[in-house]
Amino acid sequence: MSDTSLLSPGAQSGRPRKFRAATAESTTARLALIGVALAGVAILILAPLATVFAGALAEGWGAALASLTKPDARSAVQLTLIITAIALPLNAVFGIAAAWLITKFDFRGKAFLITLIDLPFSVSPVVAGLCIVLLFGANSLIGGWLVAHGFPIVFAIPGIVLATVFVTFPFVARELIPVMIEQGRAEEEAALTLGASGWRTFWTVTLPNIRWALLYGTLLCTARAMGEFGAVAVVSGKIRGKTATMPITIEMLYNEYLSVAAFSMAATLTALALITLTLKTALELRHADQLAAIRRH
Fold first, then answer.
1. Where are the beta strands (DSSP E) in 106-184?
2. N or C: which end of the chain has fewer CB within 10 A?
3. Are the C-beta atoms of 265 and 73 separated by less than 8 Å?
4. Cα–Cα distance between 74 and 66 in angstroms, integer?
5. 259-286 vs 246-255: helix axis angle to the nearest 10?
6. Closest to 254 measured CA to CA, from 54, 46, 2, 56
7. Quick one: which of 263, 246, 253, 271 has its CA closest to 59?
Protein backbone atom coordinates (compact mmCIF):
# COMPACT_ATOMS: atom_id res chain seq x y z
CA MET A 1 0.00 0.00 0.00
CA SER A 2 1.42 3.33 -1.00
CA ASP A 3 1.67 6.27 1.39
CA THR A 4 -0.72 8.26 -0.78
CA SER A 5 -3.53 5.84 0.05
CA LEU A 6 -3.49 7.11 3.63
CA LEU A 7 -4.24 10.65 2.57
CA SER A 8 -7.69 12.16 2.42
CA PRO A 9 -9.49 12.22 -0.92
CA GLY A 10 -8.95 15.94 -1.18
CA ALA A 11 -5.24 15.53 -0.65
CA GLN A 12 -5.01 12.70 -3.15
CA SER A 13 -6.68 14.78 -5.82
CA GLY A 14 -4.28 17.62 -5.24
CA ARG A 15 -6.94 19.97 -3.94
CA PRO A 16 -6.06 21.77 -0.66
CA ARG A 17 -8.25 20.63 2.20
CA LYS A 18 -10.01 23.33 4.21
CA PHE A 19 -10.05 22.94 7.99
CA ARG A 20 -12.53 24.80 10.17
CA ALA A 21 -11.14 26.39 13.31
CA ALA A 22 -12.27 24.75 16.52
CA THR A 23 -13.72 28.04 17.78
CA ALA A 24 -15.36 29.05 14.52
CA GLU A 25 -19.14 28.93 14.49
CA SER A 26 -21.68 29.71 11.85
CA THR A 27 -23.40 33.07 11.83
CA THR A 28 -26.63 31.46 12.93
CA ALA A 29 -24.96 29.78 15.89
CA ARG A 30 -23.24 33.01 16.96
CA LEU A 31 -26.45 34.98 16.76
CA ALA A 32 -28.29 32.29 18.72
CA LEU A 33 -25.66 32.33 21.48
CA ILE A 34 -25.70 36.12 21.64
CA GLY A 35 -29.48 36.09 21.80
CA VAL A 36 -29.49 33.57 24.65
CA ALA A 37 -26.91 35.60 26.57
CA LEU A 38 -28.80 38.85 26.10
CA ALA A 39 -32.07 37.19 27.08
CA GLY A 40 -30.48 35.85 30.25
CA VAL A 41 -29.08 39.26 31.15
CA ALA A 42 -32.44 40.91 30.46
CA ILE A 43 -34.44 38.41 32.50
CA LEU A 44 -32.08 37.92 35.44
CA ILE A 45 -30.53 41.40 35.78
CA LEU A 46 -32.21 44.18 33.83
CA ALA A 47 -35.80 43.18 34.55
CA PRO A 48 -35.33 43.01 38.35
CA LEU A 49 -33.49 46.33 38.32
CA ALA A 50 -36.24 47.96 36.28
CA THR A 51 -38.86 46.51 38.63
CA VAL A 52 -37.10 47.88 41.70
CA PHE A 53 -36.82 51.42 40.36
CA ALA A 54 -40.32 51.33 38.87
CA GLY A 55 -41.74 50.25 42.22
CA ALA A 56 -39.85 52.99 44.02
CA LEU A 57 -41.26 55.64 41.67
CA ALA A 58 -44.77 54.19 41.46
CA GLU A 59 -46.16 57.15 43.41
CA GLY A 60 -43.64 59.71 42.20
CA TRP A 61 -40.34 61.09 43.38
CA GLY A 62 -41.97 62.84 46.31
CA ALA A 63 -43.29 59.65 47.89
CA ALA A 64 -39.99 57.85 47.34
CA LEU A 65 -37.93 60.61 48.92
CA ALA A 66 -40.41 60.98 51.77
CA SER A 67 -40.08 57.29 52.62
CA LEU A 68 -36.31 57.59 52.74
CA THR A 69 -36.40 60.57 55.09
CA LYS A 70 -38.33 58.74 57.80
CA PRO A 71 -36.36 58.07 61.01
CA ASP A 72 -36.30 54.28 60.57
CA ALA A 73 -35.08 54.57 56.98
CA ARG A 74 -32.37 57.06 57.91
CA SER A 75 -31.31 54.82 60.77
CA ALA A 76 -31.07 51.80 58.44
CA VAL A 77 -28.94 53.67 55.90
CA GLN A 78 -26.71 55.09 58.61
CA LEU A 79 -26.27 51.71 60.31
CA THR A 80 -25.42 49.99 57.01
CA LEU A 81 -22.77 52.57 56.19
CA ILE A 82 -21.32 52.38 59.72
CA ILE A 83 -21.12 48.58 59.65
CA THR A 84 -19.47 48.69 56.23
CA ALA A 85 -17.01 51.36 57.38
CA ILE A 86 -16.02 49.18 60.35
CA ALA A 87 -15.85 45.87 58.51
CA LEU A 88 -13.88 47.20 55.55
CA PRO A 89 -10.64 48.22 57.34
CA LEU A 90 -10.78 45.12 59.53
CA ASN A 91 -11.00 42.87 56.50
CA ALA A 92 -8.27 44.85 54.75
CA VAL A 93 -5.90 44.38 57.70
CA PHE A 94 -6.78 40.71 58.16
CA GLY A 95 -6.60 40.06 54.42
CA ILE A 96 -3.18 41.68 54.05
CA ALA A 97 -1.85 39.80 57.07
CA ALA A 98 -3.20 36.47 55.82
CA ALA A 99 -1.89 37.01 52.29
CA TRP A 100 1.51 38.08 53.61
CA LEU A 101 1.77 34.99 55.82
CA ILE A 102 0.72 32.60 53.06
CA THR A 103 2.85 34.03 50.27
CA LYS A 104 6.00 35.11 52.09
CA PHE A 105 6.54 32.17 54.45
CA ASP A 106 6.65 28.40 54.16
CA PHE A 107 5.13 26.47 57.03
CA ARG A 108 3.09 23.40 57.78
CA GLY A 109 -0.64 23.82 57.53
CA LYS A 110 -0.56 26.46 54.80
CA ALA A 111 -3.15 24.59 52.73
CA PHE A 112 -5.37 24.25 55.79
CA LEU A 113 -5.11 28.00 56.43
CA ILE A 114 -6.16 28.72 52.84
CA THR A 115 -9.12 26.41 53.35
CA LEU A 116 -10.12 28.31 56.49
CA ILE A 117 -9.98 31.59 54.57
CA ASP A 118 -12.39 30.14 52.01
CA LEU A 119 -14.72 28.78 54.71
CA PRO A 120 -17.18 31.74 54.60
CA PHE A 121 -17.74 30.98 50.92
CA SER A 122 -18.94 27.47 51.84
CA VAL A 123 -20.85 28.06 55.07
CA SER A 124 -24.35 29.48 54.87
CA PRO A 125 -24.55 33.02 56.32
CA VAL A 126 -27.50 31.86 58.43
CA VAL A 127 -25.33 29.15 59.98
CA ALA A 128 -22.60 31.73 60.63
CA GLY A 129 -25.12 33.98 62.38
CA LEU A 130 -26.40 31.07 64.46
CA CYS A 131 -22.84 30.25 65.56
CA ILE A 132 -22.35 33.83 66.71
CA VAL A 133 -25.59 33.64 68.69
CA LEU A 134 -24.52 30.38 70.32
CA LEU A 135 -21.11 31.80 71.22
CA PHE A 136 -22.06 35.30 72.32
CA GLY A 137 -25.76 35.08 73.13
CA ALA A 138 -27.05 36.05 76.56
CA ASN A 139 -27.42 32.36 77.49
CA SER A 140 -23.81 31.47 76.67
CA LEU A 141 -20.91 31.74 79.10
CA ILE A 142 -19.05 34.48 77.24
CA GLY A 143 -22.17 36.33 76.11
CA GLY A 144 -23.74 36.24 79.57
CA TRP A 145 -20.62 37.76 81.09
CA LEU A 146 -20.52 40.49 78.46
CA VAL A 147 -24.21 41.30 78.89
CA ALA A 148 -23.75 41.47 82.67
CA HIS A 149 -20.97 44.02 82.19
CA GLY A 150 -22.93 46.12 79.71
CA PHE A 151 -21.31 44.91 76.46
CA PRO A 152 -23.92 42.87 74.57
CA ILE A 153 -22.83 41.28 71.31
CA VAL A 154 -25.98 39.67 69.95
CA PHE A 155 -28.88 41.98 69.07
CA ALA A 156 -26.43 44.86 69.03
CA ILE A 157 -23.98 46.50 66.64
CA PRO A 158 -20.96 44.34 67.67
CA GLY A 159 -22.83 41.20 66.60
CA ILE A 160 -23.70 42.72 63.23
CA VAL A 161 -20.06 43.70 62.75
CA LEU A 162 -18.90 40.17 63.58
CA ALA A 163 -21.38 38.64 61.14
CA THR A 164 -20.43 41.08 58.37
CA VAL A 165 -16.70 40.60 58.91
CA PHE A 166 -17.12 36.83 58.77
CA VAL A 167 -19.03 36.70 55.48
CA THR A 168 -16.77 39.27 53.79
CA PHE A 169 -13.42 38.11 55.14
CA PRO A 170 -12.24 36.09 52.10
CA PHE A 171 -12.62 38.85 49.51
CA VAL A 172 -9.50 40.87 50.26
CA ALA A 173 -7.28 37.88 51.00
CA ARG A 174 -8.34 35.95 47.91
CA GLU A 175 -7.56 38.93 45.67
CA LEU A 176 -4.15 39.55 47.23
CA ILE A 177 -2.82 35.99 47.41
CA PRO A 178 -2.50 35.34 43.64
CA VAL A 179 -0.96 38.76 43.02
CA MET A 180 1.62 38.32 45.80
CA ILE A 181 2.45 34.81 44.57
CA GLU A 182 2.96 36.19 41.06
CA GLN A 183 5.28 38.92 42.33
CA GLY A 184 7.38 36.56 44.43
CA ARG A 185 9.69 37.51 47.28
CA ALA A 186 12.71 38.89 45.43
CA GLU A 187 11.96 42.60 45.96
CA GLU A 188 11.24 42.22 49.67
CA GLU A 189 14.38 40.14 50.17
CA ALA A 190 16.43 42.74 48.32
CA ALA A 191 15.04 45.52 50.52
CA LEU A 192 15.81 43.57 53.67
CA THR A 193 19.33 42.86 52.40
CA LEU A 194 19.86 46.59 51.93
CA GLY A 195 18.95 47.18 55.56
CA ALA A 196 15.28 48.16 55.36
CA SER A 197 13.12 47.18 58.32
CA GLY A 198 10.08 44.96 57.97
CA TRP A 199 7.64 47.87 58.18
CA ARG A 200 9.63 49.99 55.72
CA THR A 201 9.75 47.07 53.31
CA PHE A 202 6.01 46.68 53.55
CA TRP A 203 5.18 50.37 53.03
CA THR A 204 7.70 51.04 50.26
CA VAL A 205 7.82 47.72 48.38
CA THR A 206 4.91 45.40 49.11
CA LEU A 207 2.02 47.84 49.43
CA PRO A 208 2.70 49.73 46.17
CA ASN A 209 2.81 46.43 44.31
CA ILE A 210 -0.53 45.20 45.69
CA ARG A 211 -2.44 48.49 45.92
CA TRP A 212 -4.71 47.87 42.92
CA ALA A 213 -5.53 44.31 43.94
CA LEU A 214 -6.19 45.60 47.46
CA LEU A 215 -8.53 48.26 46.14
CA TYR A 216 -10.27 45.69 43.95
CA GLY A 217 -10.79 43.40 46.95
CA THR A 218 -12.09 46.19 49.14
CA LEU A 219 -14.64 47.18 46.50
CA LEU A 220 -15.96 43.61 46.41
CA CYS A 221 -15.96 43.55 50.20
CA THR A 222 -17.92 46.82 50.32
CA ALA A 223 -20.64 45.57 48.00
CA ARG A 224 -20.98 42.32 49.95
CA ALA A 225 -21.04 44.06 53.33
CA MET A 226 -23.81 46.48 52.35
CA GLY A 227 -26.02 43.71 50.96
CA GLU A 228 -25.53 41.05 53.64
CA PHE A 229 -28.84 39.69 54.92
CA GLY A 230 -28.69 36.11 56.24
CA ALA A 231 -26.12 36.36 59.03
CA VAL A 232 -27.22 39.86 60.03
CA ALA A 233 -30.86 38.77 60.19
CA VAL A 234 -29.95 36.15 62.79
CA VAL A 235 -27.75 38.26 65.06
CA SER A 236 -29.46 41.65 64.78
CA GLY A 237 -32.85 40.80 66.23
CA LYS A 238 -34.37 43.08 63.58
CA ILE A 239 -34.94 45.90 66.04
CA ARG A 240 -36.42 48.75 64.02
CA GLY A 241 -34.40 51.92 64.24
CA LYS A 242 -31.56 50.23 66.16
CA THR A 243 -30.23 47.04 64.59
CA ALA A 244 -32.14 46.93 61.29
CA THR A 245 -29.79 47.40 58.34
CA MET A 246 -30.99 48.29 54.85
CA PRO A 247 -31.64 44.68 53.69
CA ILE A 248 -33.47 43.92 56.94
CA THR A 249 -35.54 47.10 56.64
CA ILE A 250 -36.48 46.22 53.05
CA GLU A 251 -37.86 42.88 54.21
CA MET A 252 -39.77 44.44 57.10
CA LEU A 253 -41.33 47.14 54.91
CA TYR A 254 -42.30 44.66 52.21
CA ASN A 255 -43.92 42.33 54.75
CA GLU A 256 -45.95 45.29 56.00
CA TYR A 257 -47.16 45.97 52.43
CA LEU A 258 -45.34 49.30 52.31
CA SER A 259 -44.26 48.70 48.74
CA VAL A 260 -43.09 52.19 47.84
CA ALA A 261 -40.97 52.46 50.97
CA ALA A 262 -39.53 48.98 50.46
CA PHE A 263 -38.71 49.58 46.81
CA SER A 264 -37.26 53.01 47.58
CA MET A 265 -34.89 51.47 50.12
CA ALA A 266 -34.07 48.68 47.66
CA ALA A 267 -33.39 51.24 44.93
CA THR A 268 -31.02 53.09 47.26
CA LEU A 269 -29.15 49.89 48.06
CA THR A 270 -29.07 49.01 44.36
CA ALA A 271 -27.68 52.44 43.51
CA LEU A 272 -24.89 51.98 46.05
CA ALA A 273 -24.11 48.58 44.54
CA LEU A 274 -24.06 50.05 41.03
CA ILE A 275 -21.67 52.77 42.14
CA THR A 276 -19.37 50.10 43.57
CA LEU A 277 -19.64 48.09 40.36
CA THR A 278 -18.82 51.18 38.29
CA LEU A 279 -15.72 51.87 40.36
CA LYS A 280 -14.65 48.22 40.02
CA THR A 281 -15.11 48.33 36.25
CA ALA A 282 -13.17 51.58 35.95
CA LEU A 283 -10.38 50.04 38.01
CA GLU A 284 -10.29 46.99 35.76
CA LEU A 285 -10.12 49.10 32.60
CA ARG A 286 -7.44 51.43 33.90
CA HIS A 287 -5.19 48.86 35.50
CA ALA A 288 -5.78 45.72 33.46
CA ASP A 289 -2.10 44.72 33.53
CA GLN A 290 -1.84 44.89 37.31
CA LEU A 291 -5.03 42.86 37.72
CA ALA A 292 -4.06 40.22 35.16
CA ALA A 293 -2.63 38.00 37.86
CA ILE A 294 -6.01 37.90 39.55
CA ARG A 295 -7.66 36.69 36.37
CA ARG A 296 -5.07 33.94 35.86
CA HIS A 297 -5.96 32.48 39.24
1. none
2. N
3. yes
4. 11
5. 150
6. 56
7. 263
- Measuring CA to CA, which residue among 8, 235, 246 is closest to residue 128? 235
238-288 tens-digit pLDDT: 888 889 999 999 999 989 888 899 999 999 998 988 888 888 777 777 666
Contacts of residue 13, Cβ cutoff 8 Å, sequence gap at least 6: none
State the chain's mean pLDDT as an integer: 84
- The pTM of this model reads 0.79
Phi, psi of 111 (to 5 degrees): -65, -40
Instruction: Tell me the C-alpha distance between 155 and 89, whole Å.
Output: 23
Higher pLDDT, 222 or 293: 222
- d(CA 2, CA 143) in angstroms, rounded, equals 87
Listed in sequence order, the DSSP H helices in 42-109 are 47-56, 61-68, 71-104
Looking from the CA of 133 toward its CB, the CA atoms found within 13 Å total 14
| Contact yes or no for 153/136 (Cβ under 8 A) | yes
- Taking CA atoms, 183 is separated from 106, 178, 198, 288, 296, in Å, by 16, 9, 17, 16, 13
- Among 155, 150, 116, CA closest to 133: 155
Taking Cα atoms as reference points, which of 90, 101, 88, 292 lies closest to residue 206? Answer: 101
Is residue 143 within 8 Å of 162, Cβ to Cβ?
no
